[in-house]
Design goal:
Structural class of chain A: alpha/beta
Shape of chain A: globular
Number of strands of chain A: 16
Largest interface: A-B, 61 and 61 residues
CATH class of the largest domain in chain A: Alpha Beta
CATH topology of the largest domain in chain A: Aldehyde Dehydrogenase, Chain A, domain 1
Helix content of chain A: 40-55%
CATH superfamily of the largest domain in chain A: Aldehyde Dehydrogenase, Chain A, domain 1
Number of domains of chain A: 2
Order of helices and strands of chain A: HHHHHEEEHEHEHEHEHEHEHEEHEHEEEE
Strand order of the largest sheet of chain A: 10-9-11-8-7-12-13
Oligomer: homodimer
Chain lengths: ~425, ~425
């Protein structure tokens, strides 16, 4: 669908409902498509993106010009900018998804009943996935490819600032699908800038959308979580904790804490709070010093300020802040119980790690901490589908239903029961 | 909490929010309770129900008197009626749940990464379950026991007609929990008749309720599905199909079709529609005759009426009706493709069965039919957690997320990732 110039002439509700209806139709085609066909479509999409690289970059130049006129922040413009290398990376990511195993049709479990019925749990796709994202144009292709490979139809709603870039990329997706005989409607891109389209998508479009995946900042995710009438796979924020127990190995703790905070400060698995066992306050000085030396601002309560140099006083808000930057808040807690209480109060259920050589204390933490990912003696920066061996992920989920932690291809499938009999009837 | 006599004096929103907050507190206690403690509580509850049998029956007499004054239908009164045998059956059901394996803490999957990180998926409980049900008082105890055994806190809202019976049963639940040192708030029963309580529960009570399970008729389930702001495990209806293929064994088909419809006509897995391959219209006469002989009214389109005696003309609505009674609608379809199309159009995604000796045709049906349960050469009446070997179930779910098909103890748990390292940091 071409970009519709004048949003005013469009009935947004009708447009979106039509997209939902077409997605539901296309969902059956992609659900039943064999793995070879899906992979052929993905490779055709990757080739198409390379072939259309010039058009994509021209569209991106137009989008960026618009953003400059609207005084969009330089950081936002940077995320929205494509160049030849970034377009090549997008194509390669699609090829990587083609190379992943297809979860559709996998038998997850199988058993036989005393009456001879053979029961198995098998994975069908989820159905139709609505994906709402912001400035990064690579999400357009990445999300569409993950949804497709897992047998789902998708409706993509990208940021209005990059709509021309997304349209250019979408042309390659539609062509790739059609080149193998799949309907282009397997992936649809919302063709209008009007933000009312997001509100419509969040209604589930009369049951045609099965799940919504938001990818973007906290305000986008918060809106989606508050308004969606269908299930959402998302995390609002990653206020990740590292707890250094009195039985920690200090050398390991210095490595892991600095890595958990500083390897990349912008990812959701970066540590934001360091909790130190009050029975091991000798660790405070070295840990604070190592973080500062790595370029991190350290904030702390009165105890921490008294024990280390150059600590900025922490406010109450600091304990629940995801900085996404080279800042960490440090506090003392009373052992593993104190750490668990602190995390239950201030955490975001994303990823937490305990550093200790005491296996009993580690077991208590792993058993009682109920975040999506709990770790022992490892950096929280491993909270990632690729690092988990799942291949690409569409995001991290902190909800408790269906998908939790990295959302990869398997998490984009459902399951159902297949029962094979030889004429069994149920006794009265 | 005692039954509050005058609903008018209660702020329903405050009351329900307080229940949500207390459930969330209690959820941590039951999540961490060892299996032995949960089983001891369940056995104490069963003993308490037997000990309080007299009080329960007296409360039930008062509820029934109220229903007669309000001209409640005899069928409804029958479902709400307890007697000594029914109370004993309730106690035995709790003992059966105590005997089931505990899913909490189960390791579902485990693998090791090249860097030595050991990753596993482990089941924690879901959290807090809201259960909304109608007249049957056994649901009070059954649902509470299933939620507890799977490590969840629960908030029960029973039908206002049986509130005194439910209160008497609840006294045994609270005592049983406290007798082993668990908080009584692990299970709470809404103590007011005001229906506004249901609306509040459906909001999720500010994030304190993780999932809602409705147990009752279509109007209750429809309201819950339409209004709930949290995930729902439910099925609106079970319009289950049996498709008899031209390659079916007629003798098997006669057995299975009659069983699927007539063994118990009121359960959700009972067949409501019989589809017969048009290439095997010789099956129509014997199948219709066998159903009629078993006491079933047969409705059909013009083709079926022409091929068999005593067939009632079917209206368009018949194809999507769950009779819950000794009525079935019969139609011809063009092979397995026609059956799949018919089911996609009129089905309720619950349970469908194909009868055929042709393995290729069966494979097509099992692969392409996307209901929660798909069967080959078996009666749809097997759609039941007990028959699947799952032990007791809290219901059947037709949604595509998290729980699908019979909802047993495992489906009342979540999962999260446990990562064990030896100091690994993530390379840049």
């Amino acid at each position: 669908m071409a970009l519709l110039d004048s949003d005013a002439s469009v009935d947004v509700r009708d447009l979106m409902q039509d997209m939902g209806d077409r997605a539901r139709q296309a969902a059956r085609a992609i659900a039943l498509a064999p793995t070879d066909m899906k992979n052929a479509a993905l490779l055709a999409i990757a080739a198409g993106i390379r072939a259309r690289s010039g058009e994509v970059l021209e569209a991106n130049v137009r989008d960026l010009a618009g953003m400059r006129q609207r005084d969009v922040t330089p950081a936002y413009q940077e995320r929205a900018t494509l160049n030849t290398e970034r377009v090549e990376a997008i194509a390669q990511a699609v090829e990587a998804i083609a190379a992943l195993p297809d979860p559709v049709g996998d038998e997850i479990a199988a058993w036989e009943r005393p009456n001879g019925l053979k029961i198995s749990r098998v994975r069908p796709p989820l159905g139709v996935i609505g994906i709402i994202f912001e400035s990064r144009p690579n999400v357009t292709v990445d999300a569409a490819a993950l949804a497709m490979k897992s047998g789902n139809a998708s409706i993509l709603r990208g940021g209005s600032d990059t709509i021309e870039t997304n349209q250019a990329l979408y042309a390659a997706i539609a062509e790739g699908l059609e080149s193998v005989g799949l309907p282009a409607d397997v992936v649809q891109l919302v063709p209008i800038r009007d933000r009312a389209a997001v509100g419509e998508l969040l209604t589930g479009l009369n049951g045609t959308v099965d799940v919504i995946v938001p990818r973007g900042g906290k305000s986008l995710v918060a809106r989606v979580q508050a308004e969606a009438r269908v299930p959402v796979f998302s995390h609002l924020e990653g206020v990740c904790h590292v707890y250094v127990d009195k039985a920690a190995d200090l050398e390991m703790a210095l490595d892991v804490v600095v890595n958990a905070k500083m390897r990349r400060t912008s990812i959701c698995g970066a540590a934001e709070t360091l909790l130190i066992d009050a029975a091991a306050d000798r660790f405070v000085g070295p840990l604070v010093c190592a973080l500062q030396k790595a370029g991190c601002e350290v904030r702390g309560d009165a105890d921490i300020q008294a024990m280390a140099e150059g600590v900025v006083p922490a406010s109450e808000d600091d304990w629940s802040t995801e900085y996404g930057d080279a800042i960490i808040t440090v506090g003392l807690v009373n052992g593993v119980e104190g750490a668990l209480d602190h995390i239950a109060r201030f955490g975001s259920s994303h990823t937490e790690s305990i550093l200790t050589q005491d296996e009993m204390v580690a077991a208590k933490f792993l058993n009682e901490c109920d975040s999506a990912i709990v770790m022992h003696n490892a950096s929280t920066q491993f909270a990632d589908g690729g690092e988990f061996g799942m291949g690409a992920e569409i995001g991290i989920a902190t909800g408790r239903m269906h998908a939790r932690g990295p959302v990869g291809l398997e998490q984009l499938t459902s399951f159902h029961y297949v029962v094979r009999g030889t004429g069994q009837t149920r006794p009265v």
